Amino acid sequence: MRVLFDARCIGDELSAMRVYIRELLRRLPALAPDWTWHVLVRDNATARSLVAEAGMDGFQNVAFEMLPYGFTSFVGNARLAALLVRRRCDIYFSPMVVNSFLAFGGFRGACRAAVVAVHGNPTHGYGGPFRVLARRFCLSRAVAGCAAVIADSATLRDGLISMLRLHRSARSKLRMVYGGASEAFEAIRRPSCDGRTPTVLYVGCDKPHKNLATLVRAFAELKRRGGRALHLLIVCDDPSRGTRGLVRDLGIADDVSFVSVAGSRELAIAYGEAAMLVSPSGHEGFSLPIVEAMAAGTPIICCDEASRDEISQGAAIHAQPSDEHALCDAMERMLADDGIRAECVRRGRERARDFSWDKTAEETLRVFSEAAVGGKEAR
Q1: What is the Cα–Cα distance from 72 to 97, expressed in whole angstroms?
Q2: Sign of CA dihedral 81, 22, 142, 363
């Protein structure tokens, strides 16, 4: 079996998509040593960094292919189809659903089957009406044309079925495969918080649907209420001018830090030193930071939303999306109540055992195998 794994969507930043791709590539070639894995990237630098991060030096069944075009390039799509034919690939896998190659069926005749992973509802989030329509078009076309669609939570899978009004045969294509948490988070040892300034941690990007501005306002209110020393650590590769300006306008610049991290080890340290992780987004498919925080023993506050309930299962305090006062109340409660904090940690560590990158890779490989032979009923 020959698989073309399209990794062109990642760059230099440590994003959830990069972690997903890295952890799959670390495991899939070893799970299927008789398969050939062609990994598609934009440049040699990305290939070298993936080899180093995923420990792929010893894999003899992996080859990197270069295609310096984005997912919407017509030239890139034509060259991608030619590459599939030339390499005699059986499966084309895209970890990103906003992909014109999938939307316009470029893979038909070029390979046996296509598989796509969906990590959130593409119609939620940022961008104007045109972008929302374009994302929905890509999603509906991909579901129609692909042999299998991987959704990273049951909430997302069921939401896609409902939104697209899928009939039974199309529903069977949607497979639920959770992501995981690296061993680096499970091994972290939390230092004592005695005498230390409590740190509120945010991990993610700064797109509008992430509600980072709501967290900044809630943190400023928490400072005003308690009059105590607090620190907000925002782990984000590209915070917006608006967020930085809001921090200045609220007079909390001395209490807020913006950092980017180079790898899982640095991120694990941030989780270990935090008094809590706050995830204010109102729309998520899986939420990798929540799983990582649970594995690290970091208490969690997140917005009251179906996929968050599914993932955390009682290991978090919930607040209403976009409600800065409710978010402030939740943070104040977490800081004040040792019993609630300890219970969140206990439940989080227990729940984190259900998420494993090994299991993710095994289930993803099963989806590939079934897609290559025509697919089977979704479980």
Answers
A1: 12
A2: positive
Fold match between 2-180+356-372 and 183-352? yes
Whether 376 shows a pLDDT value over 90: the answer reads: no
CA 22 to chain centre: 12
Rounded to whole angstroms, the Cα distance separating 367 from 267 reads: 30
List the CATH code of the domain at 2-180+356-372: 3.40.50.2000
E strand or H helix at 357, and its extent? helix 357-372
Q: What is d(CA 181, CA 104) in angstroms, rounded to the nearest whole number?
A: 34
What stretch of H or E contains 144?
Answer: helix 129-145
Q: Are 153 and 176 in contact (CB under 8 A)?
A: yes
Q: How far is CA 300 from CA 49, 249, 326, 328, in A?
A: 31, 27, 14, 13
Reduced 3-state DSSP string for 25-67: HHHHHHHCCCCEEEEEECCHHHHHHHHHHHCCCCCCCEEEEEC
Q: What is the pTM of this model?
A: 0.91
Q: Look up residue 294 and give its two tokens.
A: 């649970």
Residue 192's pLDDT band (cuts 50, 70, 90): low
Report the distance separating Cα 362 and Cα 376, nearest Å. 16
SS3 302: strand
* DSSP classification of residue 229: -
Q: Where are the domains of the chain?
A: 2-180+356-372, 183-352
Fold type of domain 183-352? Rossmann fold (3.40.50)
Burial class (CB in 10 A: 0-12, 13-18, 19+), 251: exposed
Residues facing residue 175 across a β-bridge: 150
CA dist 118 to 198, 306, 355, 358, Å? 35, 17, 18, 19
Give yes or no for residue 11 having a pLDDT over 90: no
Predicted confidence at residue 379, as pLDDT, reads 32
